[in-house]
Amino acid sequence: MRERFGENGLILFLAPLIILFLLFLTIPVASLFLRITPAAFIESLGNPVVLDALLLSLGTATLSTCIVILMGTPLSYLNARTTYPGKEVVDTLTDLPIVMPPAVAGIALLMAFGRRGVIGEYLDMFGLQIAFTTLAVILAQVFVASPFYIRQARASFEAVDRTFEDAARTLGAGRLRVFFRVTVPIAWSGLVSGAILTFARALGEFGATIMFAGNYQGRTQTMPLAIYTTMQGDLNDAISLAIILVIISFGVILLVKYITRRPI
Amino acid sequence: MKRIALSTCILSVLMIAALVIAGCTDSGLVGETRPTTLTVFCAASLTGAFTDIAQAYEDKNPDVKIDLVFDGTQALRTQIEQGASPDIFVSANPKHMDALKAAGFMENQTVFYFLENGMAVIIPAENTAGITRLSDLAKPGVKLVIGTKDVPFGSYTRQVLDKMAADPRYGQEYKDAVMANVISEETAVSSVVPKLMLGEADAAFVYKSDVQPGDRDKVSQIEIPEEYNVVARYPLGILAESDQVDTSADFIKFVTGPEGNAIMVKYGFDPIEQTQ
Question: pLDDT digit string (tens) for B37-55?
Fold first, then answer.
């Protein structure tokens, strides 16, 4: 009974902090919705800038997330299960984009894949140009958003109880089969939440994209770039785009949380 | 151990509080000797010129500090409308200044035009795309950077192209071909020149003042003839909420005086002769 009271007392003590913090997060988002009339919002939806940006953002962020999962899963598995010389260096390298200001990532990508870039120079000889194309948008997103999946995936693989895998192996399952039928299902919710974070980060990517991919409607102008651009003209369009971005982000994350909330 | 941490925490809070209070009383007591800070919101195209002008003014007036904020004119206007309160606003476009005047943000009688600028095409020194004339901009494969239609230098670019399209020597096909070569629409001139210097773009429409004196060896200019060019006029003025009207007026006098004008000419602007 005393124990119970102590817990309640603690909650009562912390409640103002929690409420204050939730308000701090909610009020700016809610203010977006209060700044615009429904009629103006619907009118903005008819603006081709808005639809182009929406489609481009969803397409590129989805592709980027798929690429990160495809390329990042083997690396996180390797880092979770084995030790090799230089592992810490590799680990730090994959974390680097998190601390890099996106503008720096954008310059770095230009230096690598730009027309005069270290690699871009050779691609240019074959008539292949990456900077200022939709591909550049995807590369920027992969570069900036990959650490979120890789970190989470590594932690999830590390947390998988090896005895399940060993049991499957002794029952005659091959390594690949064990990975897909035992390891991945156990690590599933961690992998999914890593992928959501990557998707959300890719959706919000701005600095590296505007630097490396430029700003062109329908080709490289994703939603954050469109918001920035329309802010120069019609603030209503910018707010509408911001509202759509918030709704999509919130919806996607919530949806995936419900889908993956199966008991393990 | 925990107690030590707590006391350190309290101590540092007290020290910060003490500093804050000291700061407040300081400004109240010895306001005359404390340097005044003038905040100037300035169109991004004036970055080089106004940095130099502010430096020259500070050298002459050690008790005044000029805080310059450079951004696209529209972004600055939005900031002012949303509560930012600079002392002076320098706009690259009459539209945004007029909007602020109409909404009561400006001290209207202090607003006047002080500067003219025009458009030019800039190309990197290496000029790999082989652009020597305006007509070359329509060649397929040229990578062109312009401003979005909502920022002043972007709307002037479209006006120039419209004037050229109306001339049978260029025609509508010229404008269409040039617009098809656009790889990026930027929101501020300050992000255009770097793209050119990195070799990522072949040409750009910018203000003729946008090539900074230090970059003249890396970037060259193609003039746009007067018949197609547009004249961009820059207004400036003091904000209604400014409580440093005298200092602001003095700074503006310096900007439009001989020294300020000399610096602006150096950067490729055409100062407007003031009659008063």
Answer: 999 999 988 988 999 999 9
The CATH number of the domain covering residues in B119-223:
3.40.190.10
Going across the sheet that includes B88-90, the strands are: B64-71, B36-43, B88-90, B232-238, B112-117, B270-271
Q: Which residue of A has its CA nearest to B194?
A: A211
Instruction: List the single residue in B148, B195, B200 with the smallest CB-CB distance to A232.
Output: B148
User: Per CATH, which fold does A41-259 belong to?
Assistant: MetI-like fold (1.10.3720)
Q: In what helix (H) or strand (E) does residue B226 lie, and over which residues does it extend? A: none
Q: Choose among B143, B187, B199: nearest Cβ to A232.
A: B187
Mean pLDDT of B224-236: 92
Just give the CATH number of B36-116+233-271: 3.40.190.10
Contact B150 A233 (CB under 8 A): yes
Say what the ipTM of the complex is: 0.70
Q: Which of A145, A164, A150, A148 is nearest to A105 (CA)?
A: A145
CA distances from A130 to A105, A121, A145, B115, B123 (A): 15, 11, 19, 40, 21
Residues 6+ apart with CB under 8 A from B33: B63
- Report whether pLDDT(B243) > 50: yes
